[in-house]
Amino acid sequence: MKITGAEVFIGGPGKNYVTLKIKTDEGIYGLGDATLNNRETLPAAYLTDYLIPCLIGKDPLNSEDIWQYFYRGAYFRRGPVAMAAIGAIDMALWDIKGKLANLPLYQLFGGKSREGALVYAHATGSNLGALLDTIAHYQDQGYKAVRVQCGIPDMPAGGYAIPKNNEDSKHFITQFGSLPEEEIWSTAKYLRYMPTVFEAIRERFGNELEILHDVHHRLLPREAAAFAKEIEQYKLYWMEDPTPADDQTALRMIRQHSTVPIAIGEVFNSLWDCKQMIEEELIDFIRVAVTYAGGITHVKRIVELAALHHVRTGFHGAPSHSPISMAAQGHINAWAPNFGIQEYLVLGTLECEALFPSQHYYKDGMFYISDEPGLGVDFDEKEAQRYSYKRGYHPVVRLEDGTVWNY
Known about the structure:
Elements: E1 3-10, E2 18-24, E3 29-33, H1 41-55, H2 63-72, H3 80-101, H4 105-109, E4 117-125, H5 128-140, E5 145-150, E6 182-185, H6 187-205, E7 210-214, H7 221-231, E8 238-240, H8 250-257, E9 262-264, H9 271-279, E10 285-286, H10 295-307, E11 312-313, H11 323-335, E12 342-343, H12 350-355, E13 361-363, E14 366-368, H13 381-384, E15 396-399, E16 404-405
């Protein structure tokens, strides 16, 4: 079997999904996701201009050798652009491997460790009342775990990317602008208000609901340690990204002062980014994404290292990840002995299901992977013609005095 060609598509319903299709001389094709949120054209160009020409003629079953070829063979290694492109190729090669074996990918990893994977939704409100209504909405849909974000009083836009049209708590996906929007942040106001939000959630929903919260890298180490200590009483499932992960030693201070579980990793793109915090057991959940952490081959290595150090998975699953990467993560979730939880903000729309048909499904707070061969997701090229690339940006955050801060 030989690779005869590959093509990159950009576009999708509400998102610029970057979809890779690798073709072989036996008619079997594989799909991969290279979507790098709000920088989508970069991995697409890297694939088209540099990687795809090197794929032609290679045996797609040699996925390990091909991964090493693109990773070790590049003088400048790593980085989200390169790793998203390599990750898409790796996903597509695993997809081909599964289709040839006529087995779902989790069987090639060693079989299932569980039937369904616990997932969480995003419950966001511009104020506390809207947040509580959104949590109730997701409970009605069967979710057992929610990530909660709330607008902070007297802080413009609440200090977070609050979904547009959120007044009636019925729109839950943040829409970013074609140019960067600017948000204002006050750490002092956040630290005073957020514990009262957790208290209100526990009073209304009790202790069975799993609560997750994303700090968005906004705190200094001492502030994060004090905050974690204060919110211990509310029994969070995790506190995400309390400080920027650039300085991983900062996590030691948080560990010394609190037992709140810590989740970090959605901006990581290699094992080397998270090796220290896993080996020192400074985190409880690793948040990498199969897309821009180098694909299935590399993420499995991260998962296996994490298992040795009591660190569970909590893969990134924002709307920027297409159903292809969510399927890849779904197969790893089914297999991984140290699975924790999966962020779930993709699928569920008729347009997305038409573009990426599959038999994977959500039910009662769990995500279930199908037994279709390979990834179990297809791609409708005719449907893809409906969409085109639209530039977007994440917001930029400033302190109240105008200083640029961490998003």
